[in-house]
Design a protein that fits this description.
The protein has about 450 residues and is α+β, with helices and mostly antiparallel strands. It has twelve helices and 27 strands. The mean pLDDT is about 95.
Length: about 450
């Protein structure tokens, strides 16, 4: 696991996960090279010659699941659970498998890998900036906002200390902020760079983030994982049951999240007579109307996977699920990792790698629906309506879509299709994910897509 990583916090998390699973880790105490590639001191080595080698290989390398069918010529036989789960791909961590002998000066890690204190540079007269590439940075932003400091998102490239830093940097100001950042640098390993004067760049100011998440009375594991993820990153989160959506002032929420769940369960919930009265029913028409008003007045609604079908149907969005009518003989992806490309120019992709692994489990893909001008007699001569206000944030790759697991028909039905959309809905936005970017808390490489969507809802 090389020292240099896009997201150092998740590289540490990967090492910790493997250590807690019983694997032996060694830390390089000096730089070394293998086959012409240089590795810095601090790189972590998991040697192949250890008792739990099969476990190491199983988590670190891609899965190649075989084609299996219920009977000859019949539909595919799904796996018990997942077909692909390669951890470095999901977490956005670079790892190298080495098959040749090499020598390195190392020490065995007898305890869980500790956080290495980040750097604090510059005077900080005009505040400090820090990178958005680490998930830990978003936790820091939430904690800083709760502590009363001012946090801005910088939308331009910024040159600091001779280095060009990409758009999306966080800029924090406030009285005695340096003391707080010193503690964060030690606990989270984040680097902070002080500014002598305020930068002349485009910025958005964040206010303290307030998040709501819908929770159906129909048990939903995806809601639990979503809540865990938000709690781990210090989001101020309210749970919204059906009656809460109807009774509360939703304008207090910068974003509302609906985790993966079928539209029928969201709308109708438990049937009468199957549960005590207080646990039956769903959002219903009144709940949809309340959410619609929330977004129209400037709110942000975020939906994961199957819940996106609910949003498309109930809000009449100019989007369709491109995989909805395909049989499993045509298109089948049971719990695998699919290659996706990120539009790095959009604010919702700040800090995200240009290519990510989408956790895809019988999920979906999006087409944008544009008005047709062809009638029964040919082209209609009417004024052309404006194109829908829809931004493609992430789309599935054009080739080599399967990264790990099992996929059938992906080259025909998935390539170049939209995987994440930002749909303008009057004054607000509806953000649709065709997959689950937080599935079981594992795909850390796509967390920032969620966090950025929330921050855009909280930005002024």
């Amino acid at each position: 696991v090389p020292k240099e990583q896009w997201d150092a916090s998740e590289a540490r998390n990967l090492v910790e996960i493997l250590q807690r699973g019983g694997l032996e880790a060694h830390e390089a105490t000096a730089a070394f090279s293998v086959d012409g590639k240089e590795y810095q001191a601090g790189s972590i080595i998991f040697y192949g010659a250890q008792a739990f080698r099969p476990y190491l290989v199983d988590l670190m390398e891609e899965q190649d699941y075989p084609d299996q069918y219920r009977y000859p010529g019949g539909p595919p036989r799904p796996p018990y659970d997942l077909a692909g789960w390669t951890l470095p791909m999901q977490m956005g961590v670079q790892v190298d498998r080495i098959d040749t002998s090499f020598e390195a000066s190392t020490k065995e890690l007898k305890s869980i890998l500790t956080v290495e204190k980040g750097n604090m540079e510059g005077s900080g007269k005009a505040g400090f900036v820090f990178s958005n590439k680490e998930n830990a940075a978003y936790t820091a932003v939430n904690e800083l906002l709760k502590a009363g400091f001012s946090v801005n998102i910088i939308h331009d490239t910024l040159e600091v200390g001779g280095m060009k830093m990409e758009p999306g940097l966080f800029w924090v100001e406030g009285k005695n902020v340096q003391a707080t950042l010193e503690k964060m640098s030690a606990s989270k390993g984040i680097d902070f760079v002080g500014l002598d004067k305020k930068p002349k760049v485009k910025t958005q100011t964040l206010h303290k983030v307030k998040l709501g998440m819908y929770k159906s009375w129909v048990a939903n594991m995806d809601e639990g994982w979503s809540r865990w993820m938000f709690e781990q990153h210090s989001f101020d989160l309210d749970t919204l049951h059906d009656k809460d959506v109807l009774s509360r002032d939703l304008s207090q929420y910068d974003a509302i999240v609906i985790p993966d769940q079928s539209g029928t369960r969201i709308m109708n919930g438990h049937s009468k007579g199957t549960m005590p009265e207080q646990y039956v029913g769903g959002l219903g028409i009144d709940g949809v109307a309340k959410l619609s008003d929330y977004v129209k007045n400037g709110g942000t609604l975020i939906t994961f996977d199957e819940a996106s079908d609910f949003a498309i149907e109930q809000f009449g969005l100019p989007v369709r699920n491109a995989t909805s009518r395909l049989s499993s003989n045509q298109f089948f992806i049971p719990g695998s990792l699919i290659r996706a490309k990120v539009d790095k120019k959009h604010p919702m992709t700040f800090g995200v790698q240009p290519e990510v692994a989408a956790s895809y489990s019988q999920s979906r893909a999006f087409d944008i629906v544009k008005p047709s001008y062809r009638g029964e007699g040919g082209e209609e001569k009417i004024e052309k309506a404006p194109d829908p206000e829809v931004d493609v944030i992430v789309k599935f790759a054009e080739k080599d879509l399967l990264m790990s697991g099992w996929a059938m028909g992906e080259e025909r039905y998935l390539k170049n299709k939209a995987a994440m959309l930002d749909v303008k809905y009057e004054k607000g936005n509806i953000v649709l994910f065709s997959f689950r970017p937080q599935f079981r808390g594992q795909p850390r490489g796509t967390y920032k897509l969620i966090f950025n969507a929330i921050f855009q809802g909280a930005a002024e």
